[in-house]
Amino acid sequence: MIDIKLVRENPELIKDTILKKGKKELLKALEEAIDKDEKWRELKTKADALRADRNNVSRDIAEAKKAGNNKKIGELMKKAKDIPDEIAKIENKSGKLEDEIRDILIRLPNVMHPSVPIGKDASDNKVLEIVGKPRTFDFPVKSHTEIAENLGMVDFDASSRVTGNGFYYLQNELALLNQALIRFAIDTMIKKGFSYVETPLMLRGEIIKNVTDLHDMKNQIYKIQDEELYLIGTSEHALISRYADTILSEKQLPVKQASYSMCFRKEVGSHGIDEKGLFRTHQFNKVEMISICVPEESMKIYEEMKGITVEIFKRLGLPIRVLAICSGDLGDLKHVQVDIEAWSPRTRGYFEVGSCSNLTDAQARRLKIRCDGSRGRYVPHTLNNTAIATSRALVAILENCQHKDGSVKVPDVLHDYMNGIKVLKKS
Fold first, then answer.
1. CA dihedral 125, 216, 333, 7 (to 10 degrees)
2. pTM for the whole thing?
3. Of the four, 70, 73, 265, 300, which is 20 to 30 A from 390 by CA?
């Protein structure tokens, strides 16, 4: 949620952001916010004047009592009695306006960083960096699904019977590889100075509404029947929400935390769910990182967090690229975002394995996270980044590290986490 002061003082900046994101329909909402804010300020001026009158009347009553002027005392007492009712009426109107303004501000997009490419949709995203060279194969490349099933290390048929599409059973060495990726990512985060936290897997509806885009809440988040609880789609939401409606000391910043969790997503939309496979599923594992920081440091921390994911995949020996998300593809809460994509030798293209975002103060403002420091009380910046989504990483490893005989080389950095297992193969 953007700051009403920004709308008040620089509406052209908000208008420019709306147009660059291709959301002209929000221009009317911006006008409504400006109009309602003007009315709110008029009411505030009236209420402040009435409070000043009340103080003056109280002083005049005291003077009239000293002078023994009973007639004037009566007149002033009647006036003093009426003022609170008038203030209450104005505060009721201004309170309703505040709620209406907040509802509009939640719909308006965050101001974008100058580096964000201007474009209509994902086709206009820009490649910033390519890390690693795709391997050349001298045999037909198999899909991750075919490899995993041939090794007997995954069961999609059983999961389909007991749960439905979008779930899976992992077993034996592939399940161990999944755990190895989790441990490797957690250890990496701890070495980078992030505290490890385990979070709830469910959040209240009010929290979910304020921590994510409304589009995601509708199309991605599972609701618990008959409960005002939702399954998390990422531990980032639970990590950040821990500080909702709290006041931090600037001495506590930056907050840097990492968490592993099961994640749940409906994945409603054009992409659909894989009938069989690990690429897009309803349940998956992620190691996520967040930061809460002073505004001046947020872009520096953004680059640091992005670099950690790049380092993780580089150490895994997987070819990746870093993609700058364009204005039309950027979520409304986000100031700037990059996606990390891994190479798929089967499709000869890249696919998303992680995402890093700086939300500046938009998310913190919605969650009422504040900070006390040298500049007084202010709203800090929040950031989030995927260290690793293990199902996506498993797809990349199975495809990029496959051998002609159907076995798969385990990345060197994971050997210690695999009890010495260096190759996935049929037993």
1. 120
2. 0.89
3. 300
